[in-house]
Structure formats: structure tokens, C-alpha cells
Specification:
The complex is a heterodimer of chains A (486) and B (99).
Chain A: H1 8-16, H2 22-40, E1 43-46, H3 48-64, E2 75-79, H4 106-114, E3 117-122, H5 156-163, E4 169-174, H6 180-186, E5 189-192, E6 212-217, H7 220-230, E7 260-264, H8 274-289, E8 293-297, H9 305-320, H10 340-351, H11 354-367, H12 373-394, E9 399-403, H13 419-424, H14 432-435, E10 439-447, E11 450-457, H15 463-476
Parallel strand pairs in A: 2-3, 2-4, 7-8, 7-9
Antiparallel strand pairs in A: 1-3, 4-6, 5-6, 5-10, 9-11, 10-11
Helix pairs in contact in A: 2-3, 5-6, 7-15, 9-11, 9-12
Chain B: H1 7-16, H2 23-40, H3 75-79, E1 85-86, E2 89-90
The chains are: A alpha/beta (486), B mainly alpha (99).
Chain lengths: 486, 99
């Protein structure tokens, strides 16, 4: 039995029947990280001592049978944009390279309360800006399926750590596909919940109206389990929903027969890799065999999703990143500074990478006098149309199926010279964030030995259906059980 | 419509976001920005007459609470991350000049 390959519920069963201890499981995970992560480089920080201390406490909890949750004693990793008290939180940026938060994100607190074990913080594109993890200012992360390829982004470290069995689950963050796109590239299951389902308190903000924290796991069942533990209302985040968090695993085994699956025709156009297209067709046939009704639907504004998303993101990011000013925390370059503005200019010049610089400047441009109406306001209007597209589609079908990316993972360095080319790899995942709807990425096969991802997109707050339909697929396929050899 | 964003504009927006920038960087960004903005101009094709901007998120409404004093992070704890501090305050160079 390989402890590092267990699902959450397999590990939970072994822990609660005392066949293994959390200390053993956590130690096995740490050993594997120190062995394998030299090649993958998914972790920015590994929290050995803290993890083993938490594991001991989890074992005591299990021994006493008090407060044992499905996550008690289970090792996980956290994307490095989510605040962890006394554990360095870098956003993979030079400007926060030595930043140690004094407080926990709500998600961090919730996971600690559930008894889960933090084994480390994962690499990402700087502040979440990127689609390959190559914008990390610290180092590149490699795709465990082919080390010469990218893991996707921006939650590339989270996806790679999950894929390489370097944690039992991983917490990522999805602003415009940052959970789903890397999940697809690395054969991992991951969800972007409905905007407002999971608290953003303590998440270092990229675009506040899009940011969604979401779990990455081995399968849809585990994903449902983790979301249950991190979702819910938070007085610290007034955009969180007040409605109770459903028990997502309660109805996960319900048959999908008779449900309506929509295939958005705008997502199946020229430019898709042949192996991705055939994997999607096979997935559709699988659902047909499971008794779902297949309907073609139209999301007519799909092609505008990318410019809407990026324009609004640039604008929101330019405001959010203003707090990185070198005076209260983080890097401070004050040598020879004649006034406080000089500190801002020097610190931000030295502390931000090129992609961050591009985006905050373009954001200021889109918001500036004379361009506001043409760019920012126009994008917000088209955003309304994008949202209506989904509303119309969901008046006809229960759920939508689409690929997560037109291709499988590309080579390191392949798209770094052209920022626009990199943006285009997000074409299938960005529209859901301006619309706020949830979507789950699932492993759907292989093309030239690289994983292919598909996503199911659902109605607002209807994560339960995403898990149910995702789980049904994973009962009759075994793509999600394939692991890379490292 | 092709729109060029010249280095003067790049330097202007860099200052707006308080970002130091070299002449060489301004040139690189100028070329990149022009092609990105050119791509974004595809939004002009969309008829948005009578379409309201999506200024809110799905569940947005005002959330009100009593304004009561609660314990917060101590000054000492807060200042742990401050690059420079003095007598319990964050220290920065002169903000208001004496000229």
C-alpha cells in the first residue's frame, strides 16, 4: 500500500480504523516531497515541523474520537496566495518573498479546525498572473507527466503537487481558470466554486470580483468533501453567501439518467488539438450511455470572454496591488529615496515581475480618463451579456460540458515571449469567472501521452450537480486514477 | 482600428501605478501593449446599446453591522512586517515637502 496515493476517504478509513496514523501518513508525504519535488518543484515552502506537530494532534483527536472530520489527519498543500499565520506566504513574488502573515485566511482556519495537516505552500504564477507557472519569480514548476512541459497556471504548483502525489489534496485559487486549466494539464480534479461560496478573507487579492478558492483532488468525491469544509458564510467577506453549505456527498451517487447535458457549440471550433476533441466526444458518448440527454446549446458571446476577463482583471488588479508599496510589509527599496513616492517607484520596479507590471499598467490605462468608457465600461456591459448567455443555456439544460484547454500542456518557454499568446490558452476557462458560475475540471483521457481535461459548468450554487455528474463519469472511467511515473 | 501606445503613454501609466520604469522597458511594453489593446478592441463589434454594465456580483447587497469595538491585531504584532518603524508607528520619509 502506497500511503501517498490514497484518496481522502481511503486514508480516512485507515486512520479511523487505526491501521495507520496521521504521523505515518504525513511523514510518508514529507519523505516523498523531499525525494520527488527536486524534479517537479511544486512547493515554495515545506512545513515539516508544523505538519508533524499537527499530525500528532490529529492522532490524539482520532484516539479520543473527538471532533473527527473526514479531513482529520489528512495532509494537504496550499497555494501560496492564501495567508497562513507564521508560515511565509509569497504569492511567488519577490515583493512578498519574505512576508510572513500575522493572521490566517478563513480557509486556513477552517482546515485547521477540521484537523487537516498543512505540509506546504505551492508555487504559482506571480500574484496568479499567468497560465503556465513560468511567471513565478521564484522558480519554474514542471509537469509531472513530462518534466519539459508546464503544469499550467496559475495554480501550477498546486496541480503538480496533487498530480505527483505530494499531498492528499491541494487548495488552489481560480480567478480565470487557475484551478481548472492546470488540473486539466496534470490529470487532477479541481473545482472553481460559485463566486461567494468560499470566503476570500486572507486570500491575497488578484481580481476581487472573480477570485474563487477551490480544492484540487484525486476525484470528484474528494473534491466534494473538501469544498464542504471550506465553504460557507464569513462575516469577514461580505460577498459570501448566507445560504447553508449542502452536504455535497449525500446525493453524489444519484443516477444522472434523464439529466440534460449541454454542449456549447462555440467551444468546439477549429484550433482544438485532435486528441482533445476526440476525448471530448468520448466523454459525451459516456454520458449518453449513462442516460443523459445531450443537447447542443449556444453561448454566443464566448469569444468575447477573453477580452472581457482580461480587461476587468487588469483594472481590478491595478487597484488591488497598490497595497504592495514597500512601507508596511514586504520588500522595501528605500536606498537613496528622497520621498515616499520614490520608495513606491523603486520597490515596485524591483519587486514586480514583467507580467505584473504589464497588467497593472494596462489596468490603469483601461481605467484612465478618456479610455474608461471604451474599455472598462464596455467590458462590464459585455460581461452582462456573457452572464445572460449562461442564464439562457441553463434554462434549457442542467449542466454544460467543454474542454479546459484547446491543447494539452505546452513546453516550458514555448509561450513566454508573447503575452497575448499565453492569454489565449485560457480561452475556455475565463468566461465562467465574469459570470460567477461554478465549474469542475475532470481528467478525460490522454492525447500524445499528455492528460486532457474537461470541465462541467453548472448553475449558480449548484456545485452538488457538478459533483454528482463528475462522480458518475469517474465511476465508469479510470482516467483520474492514472498517475505519472517519476 | 490599430492603436499604438507610445512610450510617453507607457511612462504616464507607469507613474499612475507608482512603478519605476526604464526607457528600455517602456519601449518593450509599448509594443506589447499595442498588440494586446488591439486584440481587446474586438469588443467594439458587440452591440451594447441598452445593456447595463455588470457592476455588481450575483449576490451583492449591502451588509450592515453594528459598529462595535472588538479586539484587533496588536500594534507590536502589526509592526513585525513593517520595514521601518519608530515608537509604534510605521516610518517613511517625508510625505509633505517643506518647499
Amino acid at each position: 500500500m502506497q500511503l501517498t496515493n490514497l484518496t481522502i476517504r481511503e486514508a480516512h478509513e485507515l486512520l479511523t480504523t487505526k491501521k495507520i496514523s496521521s504521523v505515518e501518513l504525513t511523514q510518508a508525504m514529507l519523505d516523498r516531497i523531499h525525494d520527488v519535488d527536486k524534479k517537479v518543484k511544486s512547493y515554495v515552502t515545506v512545513t515539516d515541523d508544523l505538519a508533524l506537530e499537527q499530525a500528532k494532534q490529529a492522532d490524539e483527536r482520532i484516539a479520543k474520537g473527538e471532533n473527527v472530520t473526514p479531513l482529520t489527519g489528512i495532509p494537504f498543500s496550499m497555494k501560496d496566495c492564501i495567508s497562513t499565520r507564521d508560515v511565509r506566504t509569497t504569492c511567488s513574488s519577490k515583493i512578498l518573498e519574505n512576508y510572513v502573515p500575522q493572521y490566517n485566511a478563513t480557509v486556513t482556519d477552517k482546515l485547521a479546525d477540521s484537523g487537516a495537516i498543512l505540509v506546504g505552500k505551492t508555487n504559482m504564477d506571480e500574484f496568479g498572473m499567468g497560465s503556465s507557472c513560468e511567471n513565478s519569480a521564484l522558480f519554474n514548476t514542471h509537469n509531472p507527466w513530462d518534466l519539459t512541459r508546464v503544469p499550467g497556471g496559475s495554480s501550477g504548483g498546486a496541480a503538480a503537487a496533487m498530480s505527483a502525489s505530494l499531498c492528499s489534496f491541494s487548495i488552489g485559487e481560480d480567478t480565470g481558470g487557475s484551478v481548472r486549466m492546470p488540473a486539466g494539464f496534470t490529470n487532477v480534479t479541481g473545482i472553481k466554486p460559485t463566486y461567494g461560496r468560499v470566503s476570500r478573507y486572507g486570500l491575497i487579492a488578484l481580481a476581487s470580483s472573480f477570485d474563487c478558492i477551490g480544492p484540487m483532488t484525486r476525484d470528484a468525491y474528494d473534491c466534494a468533501t473538501v469544498l464542504e469544509h471550506i465553504a460557507g458564510h464569513d462575516p469577514h467577506d461580505s460577498t459570501t453567501y448566507n445560504s447553508p453549505v449542502p452536504n455535497y456527498t449525500a446525493n453524489i451517487n444519484k443516477p444522472v439518467k434523464g439529466m440534460k447535458l449541454g454542449i456549447p457549440k462555440e467551444y468546439f471550433v477549429a484550433g482544438m488539438e485532435a486528441g482533445v476533441e476526440s476525448a471530448m466526444q468520448e466523454a459525451i458518448r459516456t454520458y449518453e450511455k449513462l442516460g443523459m440527454e445531450i443537447h447542443e446549446v449556444s453561448l454566443p458571446h464566448t469569444k468575447y470572454g477573453l477580452p472581457v476577463y482580461y480587461l476587468l482583471l487588469f483594472a481590478e488588479a491595478s487597484a488591488n496591488l497598490a497595497r504592495m508599496d514597500g512601507t508596511r510589509f514586504g520588500l522595501s527599496v528605500s536606498d537613496g529615496a528622497k520621498d515616499v513616492i520614490d520608495i513606491y517607484l523603486k520597490t515596485r520596479h524591483e519587486g514586480f515581475g514583467d507580467e505584473v507590471k504589464r497588467r497593472i499598467m494596462l489596468g490603469a490605462y483601461a481605467l484612465s480618463a478618456g479610455y474608461y468608457d471604451a474599455y472598462y465600461l464596455k467590458a462590464q456591459k459585455v460581461r452582462t451579456l456573457l452572464r445572460r448567455d449562461f442564464e439562457t443555456a441553463f434554462s434549457k439544460v442542467d449542466i454544460l460540458l467543454a474542454p479546459t484547454c484547446p491543447t494539452t500542456a505546452f513546453k516550458l518557454g514555448e509561450k513566454t515571449s508573447d503575452p497575448l499568446e499565453m492569454y489565449l490558452s485560457d480561452i475556455y476557462v475565463v468566461a465562467t469567472n465574469p459570470a460567477g458560475v461554478p465549474a469542475i475540471a475532470l481528467p478525460a483521457g490522454f492525447s500524445n501521452n499528455m492528460p486532457v481535461g474537461m470541465q462541467l459548468i453548472g448553475k449558480h450554487l449548484d456545485e452538488a450537480t457538478l459533483f454528482q455528474v463528475g462522480h458518475a463519469y469517474q465511476q465508469v472511467t479510470d482516467w483520474h486514477k492514472q498517475t505519472p511515473s517519476l | 482600428m490599430t492603436q499604438t501606445i507610445d512610450t510617453k503613454t507607457v511612462k504616464h501609466v507607469a507613474f499612475l501605478v507608482r512603478l519605476g520604469i526604464s526607457e528600455e522597458e517602456a519601449q518593450t511594453f509599448s509594443g506589447q501593449f499595442s498588440s494586446i489593446i488591439d486584440y481587446f478592441n474586438m469588443l467594439n463589434e458587440v452591440d451594447t446599446e441598452n445593456v447595463p454594465p455588470a457592476s455588481d456580483i450575483a449576490n451583492a447587497e449591502n451588509v450592515l453591522r453594528e459598529d462595535v469595538v472588538k479586539p484587533s491585531m496588536s500594534r507590536e504584532e502589526f509592526l513585525k512586517n513593517a520595514p521601518k518603524s519608530e515608537r509604534g508607528y510605521v516610518k517613511v520619509p517625508t510625505v509633505l515637502g517643506d518647499e
